[in-house]
């Protein structure tokens, strides 16, 4: 699921977007620390014609598609990870100021709209050509926090190095 989505997102020199939907799990690790996992079940690459705005520095998804994705999250208790690209970034990608302001709003709206039980969380990833960064909204504090780890599960488990 990751490779085709990754290839689609970085195939053009303008920003693209995708949604990943999955089930969340909250548990305590062996050191007593709370841990949150999101097991992605679906990848939805957003078609370019479903974007209200697409440039090399910004992307906005049409409200109808976003609404359909949010309904699916609500009806199926799914967490939502939005991914977009910064095609101009290489080994050191990070969210822009606009991205961070948008995440504060959209992650809070998601948390206010989607029932918290079973656990559901909003998160965001940004992809550069050879780098990935991620944040999620901690429901205890409401703060955006850096994602600690991204693991791709399949025939072989792969850890993806995240920019911090």
Describe this structure in words.
By secondary structure, the chain is an alpha+beta fold. It has one domain (2-126, 133-160): Cytidine Deaminase, domain 2 (3-Layer(aba) Sandwich). It has three helices and ten strands. It has helices at residues 2-9, 63-76, 97-113, and strands spanning 17-28, 34-45, 51-54, 59-61, 79-85, 122-127, 132-137, 144-146, 150-152, 158-160. Strands 2-1-5-6-7-8 form a six-stranded mixed β-sheet. The chain has a two-stranded antiparallel sheet with strand order 3-4. Helix 3 (97-113) links the parallel strand 5 and strand 6 (122-127). The longest helix is centred in the middle third of the chain and has 17 residues, at 97-113.
């Amino acid at each position: 699921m990751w490779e085709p989505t990754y290839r689609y997102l970085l195939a053009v020199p303008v920003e693209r977007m995708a949604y990943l939907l999955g089930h969340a799990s909250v548990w305590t690790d062996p050191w007593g620390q709370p841990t949150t996992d999101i097991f992605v079940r679906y990848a939805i690459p957003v078609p370019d014609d479903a974007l209200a705005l697409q440039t090399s520095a910004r992307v906005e998804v049409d409200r109808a598609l976003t609404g359909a994705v949010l309904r699916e999250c609500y009806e199926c208790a799914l967490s939502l990870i939005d991914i977009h690209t910064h095609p101009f970034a290489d080994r050191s990608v990070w969210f822009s100021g606009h991205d961070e302001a948008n995440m504060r709003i959209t992650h809070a709206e998601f948390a206010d709209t989607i029932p918290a039980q079973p656990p559901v969380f909003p998160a965001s990833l940004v992809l550069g050509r050879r780098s990935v960064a991620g944040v999620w909204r901690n429901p205890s504090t409401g703060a955006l926090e850096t994602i600690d780890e991204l693991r791709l599960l399949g025939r072989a488990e792969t850890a993806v190095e995240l920019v911090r």
